[in-house]
Design goal:
- The N terminus and C terminus are likely disordered.
- This protein has one domain: Rhomboid-like fold, CATH 1.20.1540.10.
- About 65% of the residues lie in helices and about 5% in strands.
- It is mainly α.
- It has nine helices and two strands, in the order E-E-H-H-H-H-H-H-H-H-H.
């Protein structure tokens, strides 16, 4: 996504319309990439899943943390994740590229690390951990930011999608990775905490540090 250059630095688009356009391009492009990967994986009889799926508590699995959300078991699995990924990702992106990338990164890493540490075994794939992370970020950020608009959005989202949070519980079906969901949600909450507005003393300390 193109930005504006001012005084030799990069500045994100500031208007809501620019961010909305950027969000649609980024999320749309990411989902298209997921479909291309799924097509190739299907044509090669799951070769990507066997190579890049996440294996808990294995040395190779540490690298798979960075690849497993890009893979899916089948087309239906990908379709079930695509719409909420676009919706939640787009809503986060409206707050800016930096906020979106931070929330996505923490959701990604939180999901993968949790699966690697406490996964039940076998191979875990799917972007649902990202979905849970972005959703959790949207649910809690308003409370950290003390923004009534964001809290109202969280209430609306919870009323529409709150039932998916049951997917973080160990009681869900065995073929669903509740660990990925739980870790992704934890990462989203952590991202919201890190991105919260700084208090007065923190801002004063930053000003006191020579640039």
């Amino acid at each position: 996504m193109a930005g504006l250059m001012r005084n030799g630095g990069f500045r994100e688009p500031q208007t809501t319309a620019s961010r909305a356009k950027g969000g649609l391009l980024v999320l749309g492009g990411f989902v298209v990439l997921l479909f291309i990967i799924e097509l190739f994986n299907t044509l090669t009889l799951g070769s990507l899943t066997r190579t890049f799926g996440l294996r808990p508590r294995s040395a190779d699995g540490l690298l798979d943390i960075f690849t497993f959300p890009l893979l899916h078991a089948n087309l239906n699995h990908l379709l079930s994740n695509s719409l909420p990924l676009i919706i939640f990702g787009f809503l986060v992106f409206l707050s800016g590229l930096r906020v979106f990338l931070t929330a996505l990164a923490f959701s990604w890493l939180g999901s993968g690390i949790t699966v690697w540490l406490i996964g039940d075994g076998g191979i875990t794939i799917g972007s649902s951990g990202l979905v849970f992370g972005l959703f959790a970020f949207l649910l809690v950020r308003g409370f950290f930011n003390r923004s009534w608009k964001q809290i109202l959005l969280a209430v609306v989202l919870f009323m529409g999608y709150g039932s998916i949070l049951l997917g973080m519980l160990p009681i869900v079906s065995g073929f669903v990775s509740w660990q990925a969901h739980l870790g992704g949600a934890a990462g989203g909450v952590l991202a919201a905490l890190i991105l919260r507005p700084r208090s007065g003393p923190e801002r004063q300390r930053d000003r006191a540090i020579p640039r």
